[in-house]
Design a protein that fits this description.
This protein has 491 residues and is α/β, with parallel strands linked by helices. The protein is 43% helix and 21% strand. It folds into 2 domains: 101 residues, Double Stranded RNA Binding Domain; 324 residues, tm_1862 like domain (pyruvate-formate lyase- activating enzyme).
């Protein structure tokens, strides 16, 4: 498929709209005024005239050739943005007509649709904001309702943050093995075992340095989040080293939530769970992704359903009363009925929260690169996600955060569902970019937020553990710019 741009360069959003309907298609962008004579093509044309601009989109397929037209006044106060939006609307209408389908999220392709809704409400009021999403961006009533409910929960959480608030992220980029859908920069234990002892020591040093910075600047710690990778890949002693470093370096009296990802059930033991409990960890996540052993095998996830049940039972036995579980809709080998059985099986355990992801066909994942690049599970994924949106509220869960990824099968979303009082606060803060996040560890990014604005500055750590181990001095030097940032914004 070739996308021809004529009279403009709005390629980014137009490409995104095309991918909603043609996720596996090789899309070539060309700037040309020539009309193609054959082959699948899309022609998006802009022609500025005396008082208005003529816009058109033409879609040519083997058995389809249609054109849509529109105009935008040259005096429009947001002329360029309006032209881009109208071209996207025309393209969406053509693709919907040609393929006899619509998209739940319409032409909304950004990561944070709830944040978009919040901004539109602030600018136009709720009624106009909803109308814009429905009528101009083609968002379905189903997703509008989900967004509005999520917004209400998010706003309660965002209200807890203060101008001096921040969160701490600790990266442990090691896993027992790499799942086929994963594209994170993480290392398997078998390949990186020799790096881990030094990594833990260096990470403890960075935690101490970061804690001193936060204390000097008078920042207030709201949440702590250990992610990865799989933090519980570490031994109990290594976990204790890191949690002691956090306790010694930060004032934890203000912390509202302390989360550790125990995502892989095959890494969970009673000893590790007790270390976390003793350290004051208030929330853990144990993630089966599916309750079907054949699907686990299909996606290269090296644990069993039985191991998940054992890990969940161990968490309860060790006193963890705030447990999240993750599921993924649209996995290869899964079926609608099988996914529904997984959801129902999770609900019988009554975890405090359930996060439902939609499979994303990430470019760097084994699923895309090596095995099933042509995998298509969109229709099934849509049905699966709709089931969770019906079943979880019936079981007492409400949506509290929502985000989207590119290349998700069925163009769906990821939603955190929780019982009242068990929302994952860090998830909301990181997704909304509410306040500063200070990151420690390989691959961590510190995001420095100016209160009351959308302004952010980022400080990047080295990605790989071997770089991190040898480059700690450079990263600590970079982190000194945190002080420069707060001195500037407080002037």
């Amino acid at each position: 498929m070739v996308l021809y741009l004529q009279g403009h360069d709005y390629h980014f959003e137009l490409q995104n709209v095309c991918r909603l309907f043609l996720p596996q298609e090789c899309l070539v962008v060309a700037e040309s005024d020539d009309t193609p004579s054959d082959g699948a093509s899309l022609i998006a044309r802009l022609e500025k005239q005396a008082t208005e601009t003529a816009l058109s989109c033409r879609l040519q397929l083997t058995d389809y050739d249609e054109t849509r037209h529109a105009q935008v006044a040259n005096a429009h106060p947001a002329y360029s943005d309006e032209c881009e939006l109208v071209l996207c609307e025309l393209l969406y209408e053509l693709l919907s007509d040609a393929f006899h389908t619509t998209q739940d999220w319409g032409i909304v392709t950004g990561v944070r649709p709830v944040k978009l809704l919040r901004r539109l409400i602030a600018e136009e009021g709720e009624e106009k904001a909803v109308a814009h999403l429905r009528d101009r961006l083609f968002v379905s009533e189903r997703k509008l309702s989900l967004s509005r409910t999520t917004l209400e929960a998010e706003d309660r959480i965002l209200g807890l943050s203060k101008p001096e608030s921040f969160s701490l992220y600790v990266s442990v980029p090691f896993c027992p093995s790499r799942c086929d859908y994963c594209s994170f920069v993480s290392q398997t234990v078998t390949r990186a075992a020799k790096l881990i002892p030094e990594y833990v020591d260096r990470l403890a040093e960075e935690i101490a340095f970061t804690g001193a910075l936060a204390k000097e600047l008078g920042l207030r710690l709201e949440t702590v989040y250990f992610g990865g990778g799989t933090p519980t890949t570490l031994t109990p002693e290594q976990l204790a080293t890191l949690t002691r470093a956090v306790e010694a370096s930060f004032d934890l009296s203000t912390v509202r939530e302390y989360t550790v990802e125990a995502g892989r059930p095959d890494t969970v033991t009673d000893d590790k769970l007790r270390v976390l409990k003793a350290a004051g960890v208030s929330r853990i996540s144990i993630n089966p992704q599916t309750l079907r052993d054949d699907v686990l095998c299909e996606i290269g996830r090296k644990h069993t359903v039985a191991q998940f049940y054992d890990a969940f039972e161990a968490a309860r036995r060790c006193g963890h009363n705030n447990v999240n579980t993750d599921l993924i809709a649209g996995l290869p080998g899964d079926t609608y009925d099988g996914f529904c059985e997984s959801v129902d099986g999770i609900l019988r355990l009554a975890p405090e929260s359930v996060t439902v992801h939609t499979l994303s066909m990430k470019r760097a994942a084994n699923l895309t690169l090596q095995k099933r690049a042509d995998y298509r599970g969109g229709d099934e994924a849509v049905r699966m996600v709709r089931y969770t949106a019906e079943r979880l509220p019936q079981a007492g869960y409400h949506p509290y955060y929502l985000y989207r990824q590119s290349r998700t099968v069925g163009n769906q979303e990821n939603v955190g569902w929780a019982k009242d009082g068990f929302e994952g606060l860090y998830n909301v803060y990181i997704m909304d970019e509410t306040h500063t996040i200070l990151g420690c560890g390989a691959g961590a990014v510190s995001k420095l937020k100016q209160p009351g604005t959308e302004y952010l500055e980022r400080i990047f750590n080295y990605k790989f553990p071997y770089e991190y181990n040898s480059g700690l001095a450079e990263m600590l030097n970079r982190k000194n710019s945190v002080k420069d940032f707060y001195e500037r914004i407080r002037l």
